[in-house]
Specification:
131 residues
Length: 131
């Protein structure tokens, strides 16, 4: 994705923008065009809650080249407080302290520590939460 496309779509990548079916109430992330529960095309954009818990996780000791300076990466399967699940990087959490059931909250952060020309690309990551 080039910088112009990223800047135009930043709100979609920075926030947790999902969809809710107007017919059955099912919620999805990322956004959907068709309800996966009832098949309706009547969906509205809604923000997802920024809090949840880790349901599973993995440690990437040898991540993709763009993230080699960030290794090891802790990647979590997060269940948001509304029940929607997503995969995201866990930040400021060492591999030894991550636990299933650990409460987390979303923060907007640079996607990589690697410095380059221009503004860094930012997106969501999850950090340990007290609740």
């Amino acid at each position: 994705m080039n910088d112009a496309s990223y800047n135009r779509l930043k709100a979609k990548y920075v926030g947790l923008l999902g969809s809710k079916c107007k017919k059955c109430g099912a919620e999805f992330f990322p956004q959907a065009r068709v309800c996966r529960k009832c098949g309706s095309f009547e969906l509205q954009d809604i923000p997802m809650p920024p809090t949840g818990k880790v349901t599973s996780y993995t440690i990437l000791n040898v991540p993709a080249l763009e993230f080699k300076d960030d290794a090891p990466l802790v990647i979590g399967y997060i269940e948001l407080s509304n029940g929607v699940r997503l995969i995201a990087q866990l930040a400021d959490i060492s591999p030894s302290e991550v636990r299933e059931g650990m409460p987390v909250r979303m923060e907007v952060r640079p996607l990589s520590q690697k410095s380059g020309a221009g503004d860094p690309m930012v997106g969501y990551k999850f950090v340990k939460s007290e609740k």
